Amino acid sequence: MPRGRVTVFPNWCKGCNLCIEFCPTQVLALGDDGRVIVAHPEKCTGCRWCELHCPDFAIFVTNIEEDEQ
């Protein structure tokens, strides 16, 4: 299965929760400060749904190559 690495820029995130609600593998969660955190990075498949739909461009996803896993 493909893997991805999610990076969240907390200072750009307004906490709209779109990424949390629609992540198919539940990688993201709401942090104590009301912003998104990467709670389960090992579950990311690199689908980029969060990156493509973030209204604040606060999420970036990169693919993890097999030799990096």
Blueprint (SSEs and pairs):
Blueprint: E1 3-8, H1 18-22, E2 28-30, E3 36-38, H2 49-53, E4 59-64
Describe the structure concisely for a colleague.
By secondary structure, this protein is α+β, with helices and mostly antiparallel strands. It is 14% helix and 26% strand.
Structure characterization notes:
The protein is α+β, with helices and mostly antiparallel strands. The chain has a single domain (3-7, 14-63), classed as 2-Layer Sandwich (Alpha-Beta Plaits), CATH 3.30.70.20. It contains 2 helices and 4 strands; from the N terminus they run βαββαβ. The protein has helices at 18-22, 49-53; strands at 3-8, 28-30, 36-38, 59-64. A two-stranded antiparallel sheet has the order 1-4. Strands 2-3 form a two-stranded antiparallel sheet. Strand 2 (28-30) and strand 3 (36-38) form a beta hairpin. The longest helix is centred in the N-terminal third of the chain and has 5 residues, at 18-22. The protein is globular, with a radius of gyration of 11 Å. It starts with a strand and ends in a 5-residue tail after the last strand. The mean pLDDT is 93.
